[in-house]
Amino acid sequence: MNIRRAKEIAESAEMKNVTYDGTPVYIQHVDEETESVRIYPLGQPEQEQSVPVNSLDEQQFE
Question: What is the C-alpha radius of gyration for the chain, rounded to an integer number of angstroms?
Fold first, then answer.
């Protein structure tokens, strides 16, 4: 995923299907300077972590 798309998803009111290492996550914050994102697994906000934005995948459903 690129930084622009991560920002779009983070700012969207719609829930998107984003995964990190196969786990569905919520993007809490995007840091353009370091190209990293603060994420946490859905339903587990206590497991928040920073990861590189390019390690996220967006699942497209048709």
Answer: 11
Question: Does residue 52 lie within any of the structural domains?
Answer: yes
Distance CA 61, CA 42 (A): 18
Contact 19, 2 (CB under 8 A): no
* Residue in the structure block whose two tokens are 């798309």: 5
Name 23's Cβ contacts closer than 8 Å, sequence gap at least 6: 41
23-33 core/surface letters (b: 16 or more CB in 10 A; e: else): eebbbeebeee
Supply the range of the domain harboring residue 39: 3-56
Per residue in 2-60, pLDDT tens? 999 999 999 998 889 999 999 999 999 999 999 999 999 999 999 999 999 999 999 87
- The model's pTM: 0.88
